[in-house]
Amino acid sequence: MKRESLFIFLADAILIVHVLFVLFVVLGLVAVYVGYFMGWQWVRIRTFRILHLLAIVFVTVQAWMGARCPLTHWEIALRTEAGQASYAGSFIQHWLQQLLYYNAPDWVFVLLYTCFASAVGASWFIVRPEARTKQ
């Protein structure tokens, strides 16, 4: 495998992980509220809820600090190293990038992430996670 191909492969892998992270954050909240009405007990699993909360808090703090996601940094660095100045690539890569990377003023992202984090925080009171077990 050529060096450039390895960098492109790694950048694509990071892109996929990034998309999965976004899906976890967004669909995780949807699942909590839908699960509440459908009686799904797994949406109350404390570990799931803590990981979900930490994920959106991480994203929101980054937005407030004006920082770019580390996954984005790594992907861009790998694509640059591979000689890919733009996001030219496969069909799937193109659409995954369209899903993740869109243009808007920074304040829009701060507001959206803050509102979403608030909805996740509210879910802890509306759909309470299972109580901690004492050992």
Description:
The chain is an all-alpha fold and 135 residues long. The protein has one domain. It has five helices and no strands. The chain has helices at residues 3-38, 46-65, 70-81, 91-100, 106-126. The N and C termini lie far apart (51 Å). The chain crosses the membrane at residues 6-36, 48-65, 107-127. Keywords: Membrane, Transmembrane, Transmembrane helix.
Count of distinct structural domains: 1
Structural class: mainly alpha
Give the helix tally: 5
Q: What is the C-alpha radius of gyration, as a whole number of Å?
A: 18 Å
The rounded distance between the terminal residues' Cα atoms is 51 Å
> How confident overall, as mean pLDDT?
88
Short description:
By secondary structure, the chain is mainly α. It is 73% helix and 0% strand. Helix 1 (3-38) runs antiparallel to helix 3 and helix 2 packs antiparallel against helix 5.
Write a concise keyword list for the protein shown above.
135 residues, mainly alpha, 5 helices
SSE inventory with pairings:
Layout: H1 3-38, H2 46-65, H3 70-81, H4 91-100, H5 106-126
Helix pairs in contact: 1-2, 1-3, 1-4, 2-5
Keywords: Membrane, Transmembrane, Transmembrane helix
InterPro entries: DUF2784 (IPR021218)
Pfam families: DUF2784 (PF10861)
